[in-house]
Structures are given as structure tokens and as C-alpha cells.
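Q: Sequence in, structure out?
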Amino acid sequence: MINISYDNFLRKFKLNIFFISAGITLSLTSVVLVDIAGLELLSETMGLNNVFSGVAALLGPPFAGKTSPHLHNTLSIILVFEKIAVETLHAP
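A: Exactly. Output:
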């Protein structure tokens, strides 16, 4: 009988979800960029996408570290910003 603790299973489940979503994101990036900018601008938009992804990867963790102590473990502010971002991205 295999002894798998619930925490170990949950950790592996979260990792699998993360890697599946990362793979889907990476595979669909070029398709979405072609849809937005066109095939003739794919190389330029891919470069800009990489630049902005790099800036977000550099600035995101320090920003999250500075703001997380001020949130007092509440998700209300995060959910408000998420709602604003989703509504502005899907605006006609």
C-alpha cells in the first residue's frame, strides 16, 4: 500500500495545474499575437511580449513582497483589482 499524505498529493496537484497552464499559455501566445497584430508583425510582437514578460518577472515579486504585509491576509483588494482588470480587458 502506498502511503501518500494529503499535503503531498495537494502539492503535486497544484504543480501539475501550474505546469499544464504554463504549457497552454506558452503554446497559445503566438496564436493570440497573430490574431491581434497579424502574421507580418509576429516577430516584433513576440519580442515586445518577451520584454514585457521579463519586466513583469523582475518587478512582480518585489512589488508583491512590499504590498502583501499591508493587505492583512484579505483578498478583497486583490479581487477588486482583478475585477477592474477583467472589465477593462473585455471592454468593447
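The first helix runs from residue 6 to 37.
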